[in-house]
Known about the structure:
Elements: H1 18-32, E1 58-62, E2 68-71, E3 78-80, H2 83-96, E4 102-106, H3 112-124, E5 130-132, H4 139-144
Helix pairs in contact: 2-3
Amino acid sequence: MRLTSRSVQNTGIPTASMADIAFLLIIFFMVTISFEVDKTQVTLPKTDIRIEIPKQAAYVSVSPNGTIRVSNGEEISVFVPGPDEVLSFAAGVVQNDPSKPFVLKADRDVPYRYVDGVIDALKQAKAQVIYLLSNQETVDSAGAGDE
């Protein structure tokens, strides 16, 4: 007796749900990604005190040559020529959100006159909270090399 197969099976890989999976992955990455708004590279001064900085703070960065960059915390930072422009930028941010904190990120080699000019501009703009960003070693990393 001779047996014959009644149906031929397809030997392909089912790809109907691949588009759904790719779409879900794209949505997942779009929702979870966070962009760094201020990419200015500075060497921060040392400190012993640590306070957490809010995520949606406005940033003002000062580099050693006096270059100032500002960001409202939602957009990429942009160059401004001096403290007068920092004042107008900060006044606009304070007008939109009076309680928005500002983070001053200054290199440790920046002459203090630049930092003082920026702080004065932020005060004139009526900024309520100003954080001075600094570098702090954690207790775990500071004690690890002593053993």
